[in-house]
Amino acid sequence: MKKLVPLFFVFFIFLTYSQSLENSNSSILDKANNYIFKDVKNAKKLAGFVAASNASATDKMRAFLILSDVAYLNGDYVGVINNLYKAEGTARLINNSNTKFLMSLYFAKYFRIFGLHYLYKIKIDECNKLLPKLSSKEFLGYDFQSLYDFENTFTSNFPKTNFSSKYSIDLRKHDKWISSVEDCKLRVGELYGDAGKSKDYFSKYLKYNQRYKISNVYTAKAYFLLAQSENKMHLNPLPNLLRADSLLNHYVDNNLKTEVKYAIAMHYLQNNKLPQYQYNIGDYNKLNKDLYSNLGKAKSIIIKHLQIEASDNSFDTFKIQISVASLIFLTISFLGFIITRKKYIDFLKYGNKSILTGSISKASNNNENHNKNSIPEKTEEIILSKLLKFETNKKFLQPSISLISLSKELETNTRYLSEIINHHKNLNFNQYINELRINYIVEKMKTEPIYLNYKILYLAQECGFSSQSTFSIAFKSIMGVSPISYIKSIRDEKKA
Asked: Does the keyword section mention Membrane (predicted)?
């Protein structure tokens, strides 16, 4: 018996040390999470330390999730996806409802940001099934409800859930979930249908920020969203855009910075201040080019994982067919990604249904090298700015639009225009026009219910197609479903 005492003592010391180590890792991760919007380098360093250590599965999973958020702020979409799959692998070791829910929630969030709408729906459905089984619904259910309600509000007048009510009070006891509260508060302001109400909301939010000293990244987002509301009211948005831009020079969020630079450039263009426009559109083009290139690589990684999961029968075959079909067309839809990121500025922004399957990176690089050699940089920027005006004025709705006619309108030649569309949109001319038209009519169907009652031929003509069959083929290739099925799905959502 005496011989066993030292063994019990050693075992006790080991347990105490293990518990201490686990508490230490949890504390490090709390700090990392709080650093995300204040000092992204430190957040990455701390979370990376835990991820590389002999930490518990729970701590490692959490570390990888923090690293995925850090990667997103840096515009590193490949890092986002790689860390999500590492977190998922660790979560399998834990195998409980909370971790499964959290992983589905994170995948849903980023699939939506990347425009992978069908995959987003699959993950949201998984969350729905797991929600009743959660042992801790305080933050998990809240995050899910905010994301789910935000989706539903696009087909209703206003959110059914008050995002900033009782949960925000409870969540303030947990610093590591504070970002969830602030994200949701900003989303509420976006959901107002009236620009004046949105403006008042964001003005109050900024006063609240000054009082409680919320992260400067959220302050920048609020200034940007306030400026958007002002622009809709035909007020001058520039002062608040510049405030947002100034804050983002010190705090990393490359996605938001891209949005802000674009808005500033467009303001200067509309006011005929070309030197300021060219400076800001140059910054925007560089940021956006890096983000888009990274996005294509991230989606290639998603495809590989989907193929592996399909071969292991871990995904339903029907869902895989739908998902891959939508992925094939999403990556080549640069416009869809831009539109959706504007709709969801926090984590934010969504849209189309397609992805690039492989050789797009090589093709893109070849186009890039070719463009650098053949089109002067200033000429390229001028054509891009004119192309943006073409999109803004919705001239793509003209049925007679062609590469030749658009080249004349933009005062360039067909070769330059074709190369620029290939390089910046990763589409040929016909695909580019079709994407613009389909995105236009889809937005109409989402925001103006009367469009759901129109005949398919009318919808085709409304967005510039000369025939119903051409419209239906283009619609299905981009959205993954036929126009009739898409309209039915929207009607079903409204009934629910």
From this structure: yes
